[in-house]
Each structure stands twice: as C-alpha cells, then as structure tokens.
Amino acid sequence: MKKFFAFAAGCAVLAALCAFGAAPSYAAGKEIVVYFSATGTTREAAETLAKMRGADLWEIVPEQPYTAEDLNYHNDASRSNSEQRDESARPAIAGGVRSLDGYDVVYAGYPIWWGNMPKIMYTFFDGCDLSGKTIAPFCTSGGSGVSASVSTIKELEPQAKVTEGLRVRNGERDFAAWLKETGLAR
C-alpha cells in the first residue's frame, strides 16, 4: 500500500510540473552530438555519428537563419564573411544554449568557414561550461582541415579534454577510425 501511495505522489508531482510547463531534463544520456549545419552536409555527418553512438542529437539553429546570399563566400560583404572577420561576432542561437549537464562526451560538428568554425559555434562554447567533459570536434569542409578549429576550442574550453579533430569525408568509415584513434570507440 505504501508503494502505491509513493507511486501516486510521484505521478501527481510529475503532472504538476507538466502543467506548469517544466521540461524534463535534456540530458538523457552520456553522449551528445551538437552540430551546426548551414547547407545540410554537417547535419548528415552528425546524424550518422549520433546513430553510430546511440547519442542524443542537438542542432544549433541560428536565431536569424542564413540565406544563400549570407553564405556567398565570393562576396566580401556577405554575412558569413563579415562574421568570420569580426572577432567579437557571436550570432544568436534560436532558443539559446542548452545545458549539457549529465553528458560526459560532447561531439561538436560544424562546417569550416575561413579556415575555422563558424562564429555561431563560438556562441555555443561561450554559453556552455564544458569543464571536465570530453569534446570531440568534427568538421565538414571542401578543402580546409580541422586543426585550427580544434586549437580554438581548446582556447575557449581550457578545462575540457579536447580530442583530435576529424574532417569527415567518408561518413561511417571515417568516424569508426577516428573513434578508435581517440579512445572513444566502444
């Protein structure tokens, strides 16, 4: 009988929280793939990694979406080029930065813009305390490597363990080798 009352009380508390709009904890597991994708290429890579790992997935969406003109790298005045030149640029994330408490490993995915990660990723790292967590960066890029962005992440998150980065070219095959090299393979 005591178990029944304890169960009923728990249900009542949960119902009350839901009625007042309290959201359940986002941190349902130990690994999460956080990514920004302007064209869909990084999204595909992130979804592949999340499926391989059984990890949660969170897409960083800009509060002001990027248009094709914003991404015109041949136009020096385009939004993406202007942001990359501005050290203080921190584009807003729709819904803000989520807490990643409860996660041990954060896979961070992004395209490479001007040899580094897009400034919206700086917004993410500035807004998250990833101290004590493992950050495993991966990028998609037509030509640039990942090393400059890995150095940037180490500067932004000095209390985190930042693994070697990966430039994804062949999806699952690249991820499998990288996970093994970084010691994250199960």
Could you describe the 3D structure shown?
It is globular and about 45 Å long. The chain has 186 residues and is α/β, with parallel strands linked by helices. Strands 1, 2, 3, 4, 5 and 6 form a 6-stranded parallel sheet that branches. Strand 1 (31-35), helix 2 (41-53) and strand 2 (56-59) form a beta-alpha-beta unit. The model is unreliable at 1-29 (pLDDT under 50). Helices cover 37% and strands 15% of the residues. It has 6 helices and 6 strands. The chain has helices spanning 2-19, 41-53, 79-85, 119-127, 147-156, 171-182, and strands at residues 31-35, 56-59, 105-111, 134-140, 161-162, 166-167. 30% of the residues are buried.
Unreliable residue runs? 1-29
Distance between the termini: 43 Å
The number of helical segments is 6
* Content of β-strand: 5-15%
Quantity of strands, as a count: 6
Radius of gyration: 19 Å
Structural class comes to alpha/beta
Helix content: 25-40%
Average pLDDT reading: 86
Q: Specify the biggest β-sheet.
A: 6 strands, parallel
N-to-C SSE string, H for helix and E for strand: HEHEHEHEHEEH
- Overall shape: it is globular
